[in-house]
Write a structure and sequence with these properties.
single chain, 399 residues, Beta Polymerase, domain 2, Hydrophobic Seed Protein, Methane Monooxygenase Hydroxylase, Chain G, domain 1, 4 domains, 11 strands, elongated, binds adenosine-5'-triphosphate, binds magnesium ion
């Protein structure tokens, strides 16, 4: 068996030695069968959380009531979830009741898609009661059991299905697709945070074009806060090769396509419960993207946006507008190289220097003169050193 499973084999062995069953499950097995890079290894076990905690000295409680414990073993961490069945789904959301069980088969039955319901033991043998491997080979996403039933138990699964299309480039099985069309309105019952997290993952995918198009085609987007009236921008985004952008660069591009004011853009991301930091970053990039689509870069705009933002925005802009001047990036680089300062804090003098030199009381004039000095330095008309600035200040008359 290959890494990272190889290193995890002793974890399964220890659980089995203690008299329990343990399997690799979920996304890691799916990605392994697909030959994709594997992020984190999920393990399912017949041992309950407290039984797991007796086996391993180092554990972290992740969600004991749902049966999940993180085990730290040889500098790696593994999420171990007790086999469980779920029942009493209330309001089309996660189950109200989780029952720990001792059979893997029942545990696999509560999972969302057949490709995610494949288990692998420590010898690399596959346990696949729902024919997930066949679906993986056929690149098909199919719910475990009746799609409408599974989507009405937990409506988030519809969005998960589409984000897996975006990640894997698979197709939705016909019944699964119909299940989304029939149950799409149930997504309204799902917490915005869970939806936003799936949307981020959807945009992360290599096949965003298919994923976004499905969001529109199934009309699932009608039931996502703030997205209802954004069909045109969604389709425009789906037509662009955005893979090389960072996640918030993708969101900034989407915001640009919306052609809305900053307030409305802010409201959209706050509605999706994005952190203030992310919202600010996205809005800022969108602002400069708009400026960039009107004017090419100048010393002032690169300085005001900051070089990192300018480079990010140029990257997004190049991708968005294929009419762009092929030398635009070189020009931006050239401006960045000649910038004598990158922010006011680079200016070698401070407000208190000015007060001292001018023998004047502090007041709004200090900020105004500092701004002038900043601009003089930026445009290369004044050297950024204490002596030259002092001379310039002494010469300049203040009113
Ligand atoms: P990724 O590679 O993005 O992590 P994943 O398949 O591992 O994909 P997770 O969200 O990490 O997805 O969930 C791990 C596993 O738990 C899934 O493979 C699936 O078997 C199960 N699962 C997760 N969410 C649900 C859900 N809403 N309904 C049913 N099963 C789920
Ligand atoms: Mg996972």
């Amino acid at each position: 068996m290959k890494e990272p499973f190889k290193s995890a084999i002793p974890v399964l062995e220890l659980i089995e030695k203690a008299g329990f069953k343990a399997y690799f499950v979920g996304g890691s097995v799916r990605d392994y069968l697909l030959g994709l890079p594997i992020n984190d290894i999920d393990i399912a076990s017949s041992a309950t959380p407290s039984e797991i905690k007796e086996i391993f000295p180092k554990t972290i409680d992740l969600g004991i009531e749902h049966g999940t414990v993180m085990v730290l073993y040889k500098n790696q961490s593994y999420e171990i979830t007790t086999f469980r069945s779920e029942s009493d789904y209330v309001d089309y959301r996660r189950p109200a009741q989780v029952t720990f069980i001792r059979s893997i088969e029942e545990d696999l039955a509560r999972r969302d898609f057949t490709m995610n319901a494949v288990a692998m033991n420590r010898f690399g043998e596959i346990f696949d009661p729902f024919k997930g491997k066949k679906d993986i080979d056929a690149k098909t996403i199919r719910t475990v059991g009746n799609s409408s039933e599974r989507f009405s138990e937990d409506a988030l699964r519809m969005l998960r299905g589409i984000r897996f299309v975006s990640k894997l480039g698979f197709l939705l099985d016909k019944d699964t697709y119909q299940g989304i069309k029939h149950n799409k309105h149930l997504l309204e019952h799902i917490a915005v945070e869970r939806i936003a997290s799936e949307l981020d993952k959807l945009l992360h995918g290599d096949y965003t074009s298919s994923g976004i198009q499905l969001l529109v085609e199934t009309e699932l987007y009608h039931y996502i806060t703030g997205l209802q009236d954004k069909k045109t921008a969604l389709l425009e985004l789906s037509a662009l090769p955005i893979q090389s952008l960072l996640i918030d660069e993708k969101w900034a591009l989407f915001s640009h396509l919306l052609q809305k004011g900053e307030k409305e853009i802010k409201r959209f991301f706050i509605g999706l419960r994005f952190s203030n930091k992310r919202v600010q970053n996205i809005v800022n990039m969108t602002r400069w993207l708009k400026e960039r689509s009107i004017n090419s870069w100048s010393i002032e705009s690169v300085y005001a946006s900051g070089k990192e933002t300018a480079l990010q925005v140029e990257k997004i802009y190049q991708l968005y507008d294929n009419q762009v001047d092929p030398l635009a990036l070189d020009k931006l680089q050239a401006i960045i190289e000649v910038l004598p300062i990158h922010s006011l804090s680079d200016v070698k003098v401070s407000g208190s220097d000015l007060i001292q030199w001018k023998h004047k009381k502090a007041g709004p004039w200090v900020k105004a003169v500092l701004k002038e000095i900043e601009m003089e330095i930026l445009h290369g008309r004044l050297e950024n050193n204490n002596e030259d600035i002092k001379e310039w200040v002494t010469r300049c008359s203040l009113n």
